[in-house]
């Protein structure tokens, strides 16, 4: 197909969650950080529910902190928002910065709390420098959990913050 690049092939395979194809394309010399026709890298469009894809891309030196050019989101923001703890763990243990904010001032923790992904929230609080950080709208992760009726997550965050105040 004319104009079809290795980056297009890699991002397509990553989005489908096809680990065999991802590994084959990488073994054939594809750059894990090359942007596709739509200005996205493979890690930005990968199937978030497949941590093996994240591991393969990160092993090929994919940048876990590449930002979405529109919203400033990283893949850690995406995995946190969508509740993919296994993939998030791979990202964090392979160098993803979970203290980076998106264009709205949200940490990955804000997005996980807003969506009520308590397992993700519990993991992120162990790695986030300030679990009470306010976003661009002035809300903490706990505030967002409350605003979106994620009461168990909000209660857990309140207890966590109180028990960790110095």
UniProtKB/TrEMBL annotation:
The keyword Cell membrane does not apply. Pfam families: Ank_2 (PF12796). SMART domains: ANK (SM00248). ANK repeats lie at residues 71-103, 104-136. Keywords: ANK repeat, Repeat. It comes from the Eukaryota. PANTHER family: ANK_REP_REGION DOMAIN-CONTAINING PROTEIN, CYCLIN-DEPENDENT KINASE 4 INHIBITOR B. This is Uncharacterized protein. It comes from Coilia grayii (Gray's grenadier anchovy).
